Amino acid sequence: MVNTNSRRMKDDTGVLNPQCVAELRGVRKDYFKSDGTVMVEALAGIDLTLQRGDYAAVMGASGSGKSTLMNILGCLDRPTTGSYFLDGTDIASADDETISTIRGRKIGFVFQAFNLIPAMTILENVEVPLFYQEVHRHVRIERAREKLKLVGLSDRLDHRPAELSGGQQQRVAIARALVTDPSIILADEPTGNLDTTTGEAILSIFDDFHDRGLTIIMVTHEPEVAARCERVITLRDGLVETDTRSR
What we know:
Elements: E1 20-32, E2 38-51, E3 55-59, H1 66-73, E4 81-86, E5 89-90, H2 96-106, E6 107-111, H3 122-132, H4 137-150, H5 166-178, E7 184-188, H6 196-211, E8 215-219, H7 223-226, E9 231-236, E10 239-245
Parallel strand pairs: 3-8, 3-9, 6-7, 7-8
Antiparallel strand pairs: 1-2, 1-4, 4-5, 9-10
Helix pairs in contact: 3-4, 3-5, 4-5, 5-6
């Protein structure tokens, strides 16, 4: 059950900031050896605020902390120290049940490898997040149909992933991420397995949804992909090295 008594994200005056969808305060993430000593300091004390409607790219060399940051933003991992507020809930101090509920409702994931279930139709794949939320089947189907229509696949509902191209499979993955109407879409190298033309089509879908007001955070190593975003966050050695807005 979501903790409604959790602290809310506030600005410097202490007033709740409704435009702030996520905030990290002094977030560190260490991975430990079996003897309890630190093996890797993945994040070294990050302060980061994401505004509602942000379209941000996260960049950095291998080992800079990109994947760890995305795991924490996606409620897949907890900080070792520090606070992470998502839509007002302090994730770092929440219990596992609360985190699981928030992750299912507030976060939409898009992965490089699509992660679709081969035995299911694409309609059934898109329904999956709603199934775990115990949404009635009739409602699940209608919402899945709606999101697949938005990504241009309303004529492929009964197809299985193997019957689709890579670009079409990624469209299914985007529809699945959107079906819960999340606060944030986290996309990890979403065009990494696609050719240039297909990747451009997928990025155009992200552009369109950003224009509709969706908050999108995208990990990429490609400068041309990052250039489409309004904000570029570069990590180095577990810290934010640069954070720039183009518009």
